[in-house]
Amino acid sequence: MNMCLIKNKAALGNFIKNYKNIIFCCFTGLMAVGSFPKFSYSFLIWIAFIPFIFVVTENSFKKSFFYGFIAGFTFNALGLYWLVPMLELNMGSYVQTIISSCCLWAYLSLYWGAWALFFSFIYINTRKIKNRIFANSITIIVGSCLWVLLEYIRTYFLTGFPWMLVGYSQFKFIEIIQLSEICGVYGISFLILFCNLCFYFWIKENQKKYLYLALFFILIVLVFGVIRAEKFNFFGQEEFSVSIVQPNIDQNRKWDDAYKEQISDILNKFAIKISENKTDLVIWPETVLPGYVPIDKYIYDNAKYMVNIAGGFNIVGSNFFEKDLPYNATFAFEDNGDYVFVHKKNHLVPFGEFIPYKSFLSRFFGVLNQMGDFVEGDDTQVFNNGKIYLGSTISSENFFPDISRHFVLSRAKVLVNQANDAWFFDTAALEQHFIMNVFRAVENRKSMLISANSGISGIIDASGFIVSQTVPSKRALLRGTFLQNDFLTFYTKRGDIFVYVCMSISLATFFIVLILYFSKIFYKKIKRGLVC
């Protein structure tokens, strides 16, 4: 018995010794996932990268890429696990689902690998600087800048997939996220990596100055955050009442003609309920109408009847047909039942609403949207009735800070997000999507009103505080009030200038180190007489 126990302990010890680096990387991925919904232990992200950094700094930059990929794959596979049930429902093939999910997880993991590769290269070469504090300072700043740059690239490259940027993990930490009005969500990501790197050097070199440096910056951000959160809590000049509809229509029935009348009846019941206590604004979710406006006469007539009963300024999501082109759109209906404005979705979901590189990829994948391919719009149409001025992002448009800020630059005084998260069932994706709205509110200092067919609907004020929200995946009518304002933040006016600063620092440092690296190789060859 004792011999067996000794052998098992020895085997475990050998396993840990042989796979220590991989275990550390997986541990980082696990802690990082734990900081996001549904766990939301947001404090974990402030120390999550430390084991991973230990691995990267102890290995060559070539091996570091592999370890970065492992950490990234752990993070993405666990955090985006909901891809499997979503894709399986739409593809009908478990094998194709697993292949597609793994491809996306692997693609996102490349960014972690790229960070580890470049960070390791910078770290190894800065070790040659005699002044250790100066060398570590460069490493900390460049490592943080590099992470921001890669997150930004991931946001927009190949149509973009900015899900679970590390800054989003702090959505509940109101005082910290106030920095977003200057730097966007990327500023929060920078601070998180900066602190992780400081804590790493504190532990490794047993130098408390790095701990104090991290705490000093956190303190500055907290003081700034307390002052700004107080200023923008329920901030605005005019208050309006709002009704937010969450009909929770099953995705399998949404586009089935057999359920068209049933869905219309559900929506009409909401309209009647709203009419009992009319509000200034009514928000209906993305594609709430089961057809195309205006060519589907039954749907369009029912929509006019529905908004006329509800009263007020109605914002209604629907498919839209114009000049023989299909769009995912949202409409502003006035009291008389006619729509007066339309916004066509600017950023479509690849494979969800269109097939990228269609000539090649369509032979392997079909579009998940049951209505077929959509065409991308290019407007930032602000809806107004002379009192309320709003910009409405449609579903995944709220992933992209630029779209929201362009609405505000077009004179929107309140922001709306209309979503159909029935795709995601009752998974962490519902809250992961919802929390992005918190940052769009702070970045632009605008109240944010969210209406989801299924998922989470809510009201967020200009400080990023979630005033109210619905229970996920339940039929609900949320009533409340919001304030609108015409304040313009630094981020709204200047955009991602912080990212460009990070990019400049990263590239400048990398090229300087690269030049020095090859200069030394060249110098050594000269000394050996290999170069004339």
Short key terms for the protein model shown above:
532 residues, alpha/beta, 7-stranded mixed sheet, 6-stranded mixed sheet, 13 strands, globular
Question: Quick recap of the structure?
Answer:
The protein is of the alpha/beta class and 532 residues long.
Count of separate DSSP helical elements: 20
Shape field: globular
Helix content: 40-55%
Structural class by sheet pairing and helices:
alpha/beta
The fraction of residues assigned to DSSP E strands is: 5-15%
Largest sheet: 7 strands, mixed
The radius of gyration over CA amounts to: 26 Å
Distance between the termini: 71 Å
User: Mean pLDDT, nearest integer?
Assistant: 89
Given as residue ranges, the uncertain stretches (5+ residues, pLDDT < 50) are none
Instruction: Tell how many strands the DSSP assignment holds.
Output: 13
Can you put this structure into words, describing what you see?
This protein is α/β, with parallel strands linked by helices and 532 residues long. The mean pLDDT is 89. Strands 1, 2, 3, 4, 5, 6 and 13 form a 7-stranded mixed sheet that branches. The protein has a 6-stranded mixed sheet with strand order 7-8-9-10-11-12, with helices on one face. Helix 3 crosses helix 10, helix 7 (132-156) crosses helix 20 (497-527) and helix 10 (185-205) runs antiparallel to helix 11 (208-232). The N and C termini lie far apart (71 Å). It is built from 20 helices and 13 strands. The longest helix is centred in the N-terminal third of the chain and has 33 residues, at 94-126. Strand 8 (389-394), helix 16 and strand 9 (414-419) form a beta-alpha-beta unit. The chain has helices at residues 2-18, 20-34, 50-57, 61-79, 83-91, 94-126, 132-156, 174-177, 180-183, 185-205, 208-232, 251-254, 260-275, 297-310, 358-361, 401-409, 429-434, 436-444, 490-494, 497-527, and strands at residues 238-246, 281-283, 289-293, 313-322, 325-333, 339-344, 383-384, 389-394, 414-419, 448-452, 458-460, 466-469, 476-484. Helices cover 52% and strands 14% of the residues. The protein is globular and about 85 Å long.
